[in-house]
Amino acid sequence: MVGGFDWARSQVNLATGAVGGGSGRQPGSSFKPFALATALNQGMTLDKTYNAPGTLNLKLNEGGTWKVSNYGDAGLGTLNLVDATTRSSNTAYAQLINDTGSKPVVEMAHKMGVSGDLPEVPSVVLGTGSVSVLDMAAGYNTFQREGNRIGPVVVSKVTDAKGRVLYQAPSTGEQVLPTDTAQQVNWVMSQVVQNGTGTKAQYFEPAAGKTGTTENYRDAWFAGFSCDLTAAVWVGYPGPETKYMTNVHGMQVAGGTFPTIIWNRFMSKANVGMTGCPTFPKPASAGYSQSYDTAPLVNDTSPPSSAPGTSAPATSSSSSSSSSSTSSSTSTTAATSSTSSTKPPSSSSSSTSTTKATVPGAPKP
Question: From 71, 91, 133, 277, which residue has the greatest number of CB atoms within 10 Å?
Fold first, then answer.
């Protein structure tokens, strides 16, 4: 596990958040799949629609009014849950969590492996909680395993000189989400990669995932998986200062930019020899999904929340940031969870370190 540039410079494991001495980062829209899973688990279907105006003053079932906006105040019309996810509509997802309730969404994320501090307020759906990169890898790995949660481990097996097994990590997980619900969410996230905000993550295997970008480009994420491997990538500035990625190599760094590219390069290397993943099956409830004549969105920034009772700060602490540099000023952390123990994850390039958590090689249920 690599959690920073140099132990002599900093004794914080930036990939593990508060556990490693940091305090986590906000996940932005990469948190939305946990709300989608909650909605489907409550009986909603993927063809459920919401009007997604550029800005919405939403009367909350939990009390008060929440003003929430899409990126660029873009009005996106009427969206079903598939298109609301691929286009990462904040106003649609605000209405979704108003229907599901905040507490069930937080409970779902925790059940699926996210251990960070998640406020039970509507804005949590836009990623205002505090998570680590390892949190997101663990949570998304539960999606990859079709709702079966098994925690990441550092050591999967220990043998002696004669090959006798002295220790074997547990290989049986807990079913925390119905298989059919997980399969629906996974197909939706595959559409994010195919024609949504995560197109730069496409590589030679079918993939699913979700981008995330926090206010003013402070944090950028992509978490996703193939049939063999789950990985989460965070990009941001380390250190105590609040700094924004508004001009990194002339680019505003959103989840659909550097994080998806890093994820793509990592997975392309790590999945060598693991070809043969099937495509994600389309659920019957998916219905019609928009096809876009314009270039897919690459920015899914979550604006500041004005939801009453919001306890999460506008930006999270920068003490838990990242482990390796992709440029002279911006750094990345990648945490990976694998469902195959035959080939451990490997770094995608010499300039990107990864925090690796290998999950025992139990087949998906």
Answer: 133
